[in-house]
Amino acid sequence: MIEPTRDPEQLAVHTLRMLAADAVEQARSGHPGMPMGMADGAFVLFQRFLRHDPTRPDWPGRDRFVLSAGHGSALLYALLHLYGYGVSLDDLKRFRQWGSCTPGHPERGCAPGVEMTTGPLGQGFATGVGLALASSHIHERLGGGAFSPADWRVWAIVSDGDLMEGVASEAASLAGHLRLGKLVYLYDDNRISIEGSTELSFGEDVAGRFEAYGWHVQKVDGHDRQALAAACEAARDEIERPSLICARTHIAYGSPGKQDSADSHGAPLGADELRETKRALGWPEEPAFFVPDEARALVERRRAELASEREAWEAELARWKAACPDGAALWEQLSRADLPAGLLDELIEAAAGESAATRALSGKVLQRAAKLVPGLLGGSADLAPSNKTAIKDGGSVAASSFGGRNIHFGVREHAMGAMLNGMALAGLVPYGGTFLVFADYLRPAIRLAALMELGAIYVLTHDSIFVGEDGPTHQPIEQLASLRCIPGLAVYRPADALETAAGWTLALRRRRGPTALVLSRQKLPALERPAGFRPDHALQGAYVLVPEREGKRAVVVASGSELAPAAAAARELGVRAVSMPSVECFFELGASERDAIVPAGWKVAVVEASRDPGWARVAGRDGLVIGMQGFGASAPGDELGERFGLDAGSIQRSLADWLAG
Fold it and tell me: By the 8 A CB rule, do 429 and 376 touch?
């Protein structure tokens, strides 16, 4: 047993350990081991290095703290309580319960001080890279200099599991290549995973790997706060490389029976072991959720210092705005992400022209959008010439120059998706491009963007079997259905220039949710629209393209490249044709608005070169869906259309048979 201490720092660290252990014990669910092991490192960050102010959690000059090891959420909530972020002891007692602000893994918006939703390992690591890139990008765009409102750092706690995930490797490689010096990650090197010792599966030289990536790497005892502070100081001073501090820790530090054991990774200590742990640390057994006065007083003094630092920063901001009016104006634009009132008209004008692939039309729209939206930046996973995602004269983000608006992500789709989330969290309007079939690599990050309500934009080209000769490995079949299943993601598949402009308009307006723009490789014809059509109709997700002849009570619905042949068949057969570029936006309309487009009681057919069972919501139980049932094949696109029944003649025959049946 350790003799009870009155050292305020040690009391504060033990407070973090025991608040986390008590919370997990009361919930009978959670991960006590990581919080107990990382309490020293977390305390050093919050007390000595993190620039933050609990009275102003959204202060733009704050550093960003990311708990990538989100299973250790009880540690973050204990920190937020101790530092006065509005998380009460009652909130800690309701850890993992319905409606609490202390869910099992950190969720953006659940409590002040939670910067992002974490839990899926590696995502916080990679998102932090995006946050650091955003800081460097905005800083340079604003002119650099000794003061900048965007000169924040990103501090994170990462785990063995984070470093095992491929997304972290992708992001670490790019961060090292770009020399992102505003990135400091504290690695909880406790050598324990759920199944046991990491020797079972993770025997690599982590420090050597990150040195090879180009990172600044240090090794310290994770329970030696002076050594931790020295390492953090050295990392803060290293501005040419991202930093990894390998902190050797003991999971469930202080627990006589579970320290260094996988038993503490994902389960409560148990009442008996918790009692023995408190005895071993010289901690009162009762009451639970105990916070010593000395710990509160120590942190309160630091809170006063942090508030003063924030006030000094705000005074510097005022002086900078007066001295740099152009930079101040751009800062305001980037902070508000305002859009011009005539955005749709501007983008339609940019896309006007003859028939073209929607990927090419998207590239034209992007050029105009970049002029109208200063915060718009992005790139592609080494596919910019195919995705048409380069901003002309926008410059490239590079280690020597972060102010460019074109990001070369390399063949790193997974990291690209997570980095877009980081840039969106920083207030930018980021986009990333790849082929639709590779959206599967992006999907975990897209899901988190939807959970966090971030306005990331995905430019997904080569959208169907009409990719042609590249064959089934590159021909997306099920990806549209998969994306449409993600709550909060708007999927928009345009059929021509006007719809492409509408899709970009929708994406730029959606600041509280991500958007996927799904674009063709092949040329598509410009569509003729009926009298009374207004361009903003394309923003509602669906509209009538071809009116029906009198007495015909049938509708053909299509999207993207299948719309033109479906509309031609509808004209021949005298039935209504509806363009539906976004199923999600259509179903956000009221019932009467939907009925005006796809009337209740009418026969409905759907045409799309995908395998999407979700179209049954539109077609109904007795409707017809003309699409794909299996994978594609390697052949020219026109032949594939004939072989799979998706050319104009096949579509018309299928519709005629259906109407006659």
Answer: yes
The structural domains of the chain, ordered by start, are 8-305 (3.40.50.970), 343-524 (3.40.50.970), 541-660 (3.40.50.920)
Q: Helix or strand or coil: residue 558? A: strand
**Among candidate residues 493, 440, 439, 469, the one with its CA nearest the CA of residue 627:** 493
- CB neighbours of residue 590 within 10 Å: 8
Longest dimension (CA), the chain: 91
Q: How far apart are CA 238 and CA 132, in angstroms?
A: 14
One-letter amino acid of 565: P
Residue tagged 């040329």 (tokens): 523
Neighbours of 98 (CB within 10 A): 6
Residues 199-210: b if buried by 16+ CB within 10 A, e if exposed: eeeeeeebbebb
**Rounded to 5 degrees, what are φ and ψ at 296?**
-65, -40
d(CA 648, CA 562) in angstroms, rounded, equals 9
Cα 342 to chain center, whole Å? 28
Q: Is 3 a catalytic residue?
A: no
Predicted confidence at residue 353, as pLDDT, reads 83
> What secondary structure does DSSP assign to 94-112, as a single string?
TTT-TT-SS-SS--TTSST
Nearest Cα residue to 118 out of 101, 131, 103: 103
- Segment (H or E) for 189: strand 183-189
Taking the CA atoms of residue 518, residue 520, residue 524 and residue 528 in that order, the dihedral angle to the nearest 10 degrees is 0
How many angstroms separate the Cα of 6 from the Cα of each of 3, 11, 13, 39? 10, 7, 12, 17
User: Does 1 score more than 60 pLDDT?
Assistant: no
Exactly one of 115, 165, 413, 562 is catalytic; name it: 413
pLDDT tens digit string along 502-532? 999 999 999 999 999 999 999 999 999 999 9
pLDDT score recorded for residue 210: 98
Given pLDDT bands bounded at 50, 70 and 90, which one contains residue 5?
confident
How far is it, in rounded angstroms, from Cα 71 to Cα 134? 26
pLDDT tens column, 196-217: 999 999 999 999 999 999 999 9
Rounded CA separation 137/104 (Å): 33
The model's pTM is 0.97
pLDDT at 312 over 60: yes
pLDDT at 661: 80
- Strand arrangement, sheet containing 429-435: 406-408, 376-380, 429-435, 457-461, 515-518, 490-492
Residue 7: what residue type? D
Contact (CB, 8 A) for 553 and 603: yes
The DSSP element (H or E) to which 178 belongs, if any, is helix 166-178
Read off the pLDDT of residues 127-151 as tens digits, 9 standing for 90 and up. 999 999 999 999 999 998 889 999 9
The 8 Å CB, 24+ separation contacts for 138-142 are 138/331, 138/334, 138/426, 138/428, 139/402, 140/401, 140/402, 140/403, 141/330, 141/334, 141/403, 142/324, 142/327, 142/330, 142/331
Q: Which residues contact 423 (CB under 8 A, 6 or more apart)?
A: 130, 131, 133, 134, 137, 377, 430, 456
Instruction: Find where tokens 């009016």 sit.
Output: 325
Residue 7: what are its φ and ψ, rounded to 5°? -70, 120
Nearest residue to 263 (alpha-carbon basis) of 160, 162, 191, 193: 193
On the question of pLDDT at 76 being above 90, the answer is yes
- The count of other CB atoms within 10 Å of the CB of residue 107 is 19
DSSP state of 344: H
